[in-house]
Amino acid sequence: MQMKTASVVAVSASVGLSIHKGKTKVLKFKEENSNPITLDGETLEDVEAFTYLGIIIDEEAGSDADVKARIGRARVAFLQFKNIWNS
Length: 87
What we know:
By secondary structure, the protein is α+β, with helices and mostly antiparallel strands. The chain is built from three helices and six strands; from the N terminus they run H-E-E-E-E-E-E-H-H. The N and C termini lie far apart (59 Å).
């Protein structure tokens, strides 16, 4: 994974793009390789889950966390209409 990361950095730099080390996170689906991923000598933060395009992605590659979050948001929206429906 380190080699692929270095390759992405090199290709990005060749077209004038840079990768923000503070915003870049690592999510490992399989813990076979526990070596840290580095970017220009700095170790990237390992995370258990993150949100991408509004969808929660976790290390189990499941959707439980995302479904629970969506149900919670729907519940909040539904409860906002409670006064209207009860009148």
